[in-house]
Amino acid sequence: MDELALAQAAKDGDLNAFNRLVLEYQDLAFNVAFRLLCDEDAAADALQEAVISAYRSLDSYRGGSFKSWLLRMVTNKCYDELRRRKRRPTIALEPTDPESDEEIESPTWLADDSPSPEDQVAELDLEKAVQDCINHLPEDFRAVVIMVDMQSMDYQEASDIIGKPLGTVKSRLARARLKLRDCLQQFRELLPPMFRLETEETL
Amino acid sequence: MKARITIQDWQLLSAYMDDQLAPREKQALEARLEKDPELHAEYLSMRQTRAMLRAAPRHKAPRSFALTPEQARQYTRRKSFLFPALSFSSAISALLLIITLLTRLTPAAGLRMMTADEAPQAEMLAAEPAAMEATTPAIIIWGESNLNTPMMANGRGGSGGGGDGFSFNTMPMPEEPAASAPSEKGAEESLLSPVPTQVVEMPAPMPAEGAPQAESFSVEAQPSSPILGIAPEQEQGLITGMSATAVSSEPQPLRQSDTGMQFTEAIPYILAVIAAGSALAAFWLRRKGLI
A66: buried, middle or exposed (CB in 10 Å: 19+, 13-18, 0-12)? Predict the structure, then answer.
């Protein structure tokens, strides 16, 4: 795929070229949004809004990496959503006991009684541990560590996406890794065995 | 012991792990890692953290986010229709507001405004000599029966009456209301006499305590008119009404200039309302996704 040619065609009004670029990067963009928002529906909404914004802002696209340009809009939409949540915090609905009319703190009725494969359990544990620790990061640190450590982007791409200098990216990434290291140690016993061994061979 | 590892060391380890160090920095750090087991343990824990993050499952997008041709047309059309209209409205309003404020605050503008303020006073000052001259006409008092015709004509004329015999220019200035009291007294006394009596001069100003303003206007107006007599009290009421109407109808130029000043003063508020309205409209349309 020739990204630059497609981006130029999209800028010239070719909707098919624009959609090809969207389909190419939508999984990556959705993962970034999901990690930032920790909610599939909210991530889908943010991605949809970002795609619309990108289409309407094609005039402002000045070349360069379309992937970074699109992801920048996605992260901006996600941070908008995070700010909106702070302004209007939501309260999770808890099931209530029909007899006492009080909330059930441990909704056992949601538990799946069917047995799960061990690797699926381990993956769910890792997913939960990672997401929980990311949620406890300062918001400014999240995007950098998600892009570099989880999506394997390089520093320059992260810098282009968040609109900060390379030095800021390095600093935020190092601090985010330190916090995540301390946080994930709490879950070490719950993680798959390979992550419990602190030997270089396992890394 | 871990406190010995500083945040700068962590940044070096982080950059080293991503191969972002310059060759000399890289060699220096590798030498430290060989000698310092704690630093090496920190480096291993950092690599382990990254391995855990990369092992976290990835999610596929739940659906296609490509735009349909209908969606593309919709967003393109709405933008081109509304965006240009609202994008600069607030900026233009703010610019006009600044221009207005500058115009009001500059000395030249202040001079113009002061001149405009003083214009009505100048008109009144110009009219004052004539009024002063008119304050001392002779009043010929006739009997009650002799003044019906002209007075009735003036009374029926309402605000339009008195064109010949009554002029605002001849009306004394309100600064001399005291003149009304003695003249009124003189008029009342003169009613007792059926023969014409000439009052040569208006008495000296005296304090007219409690005398109504309209009454003073009506009596002051009499000396300037070719009045052939003094009406009884009932008909004086007619004269009073006419005088009040004449007084109230004359300062129209003053009101026009006042209206102009009020409009000038209201411009900043109008612009502020326009700016706020356009901002609210843009915010609402933005929330609706129309722009």
Answer: buried
Contact B224, B247 (CB under 8 A): no
pTM for the model: 0.54
B51 and A CB contact within 8 Å: yes
- Rounded distance, CA A110 to CA A101, Å? 18
ipTM of the complex: 0.78
Could you tell me if residue A103 is inside a domain? no
Question: Domain for residue A193, yes or no?
Answer: yes
Q: Is A92 helix (H, G, I), strand (E, B) or coil?
A: coil
Distance, in angstroms, between A127 CA and closest chain B CA? 5
Give the model confidence (pLDDT) of B115-157 as tens digits.
Answer: 555 555 545 555 555 445 545 555 555 554 444 444 444 444 4
Cα gap A131→A38, rounded to integer Å: 7
Summarised one tens digit per residue, pLDDT across range B11-41 is 999 999 999 999 999 999 999 999 999 999 9
Residues A85 and A8 in one domain: yes
A 80-139: CB under 8 A from B: 123, 126-127, 129-131
Is A108 domain-assigned?
no
A129 and A45, same domain (yes or no): no
CATH for A79: 1.10.1740.10
User: For residue range B182-225, what is the model confidence (pLDDT) as tens digits?
Assistant: 444 444 444 444 444 444 444 444 444 444 444 444 444 444 44
The CA distance from A184 to A129, in Å, is 7
Work out the widest C-alpha separation in chain A, in whole angstroms: 65
Structure tokens given for A42: 């909210």
Do A135 and A198 lie in a common domain?
yes
Domain that holds residue A63: 1-90
Judge contact between B239 and B218, C-beta under 8 A.
yes
Look at residue A143 and tell me if it is in a domain. Answer: yes
Please give the residue of chain B at the shortest CA–CA distance from A192: B52
| CATH number, domain containing residue A154 | 1.10.10.10
